[in-house]
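Design request, tokens follow.
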């Protein structure tokens, strides 16, 4: 647990490193600032850092990290290919701003367009 402010910097730095690592894995699937996947990896980085802080037994920590690893592998095993902005523009036939991408993705999924 954090006892004073000197440890707070280490915890924030560790969380930032974990977030950047997760962001590099998931970046092709994040289409927007308000994408739920982005908020998931923010929460996941804090939970992994909390696991490092709280779990004292190495076998429990290894079990926790293996569960995180299998979630990551399962995500990429079943998620399919990511939608690219160029593909979204090609399908819609118009320019897309950053705030319109999630709505267009929903429209694509509802009409079951097949992207090549």
């Amino acid at each position: 647990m954090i006892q004073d402010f000197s440890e707070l910097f280490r915890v924030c730095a560790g969380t930032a490193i974990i977030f950047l690592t997760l962001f590099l894995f998931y970046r092709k699937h994040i289409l927007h600032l308000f994408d739920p996947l982005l908020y998931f990896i923010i929460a996941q980085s804090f939970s992994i850092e909390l696991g490092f802080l709280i779990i004292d037994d190495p076998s429990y920590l290894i079990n926790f990290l293996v569960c995180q690893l299998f979630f990551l592998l399962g995500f990429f095993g079943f998620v399919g290919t990511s939608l690219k902005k160029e593909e979204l523009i090609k399908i819609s036939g118009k320019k897309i701003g950053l705030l319109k991408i999630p709505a267009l993705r929903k429209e694509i999924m509802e009409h079951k367009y097949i992207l090549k």
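Comment from the thread starter after seeing the answer: thanks! Residues 5-26 form the longest helix (22 residues).
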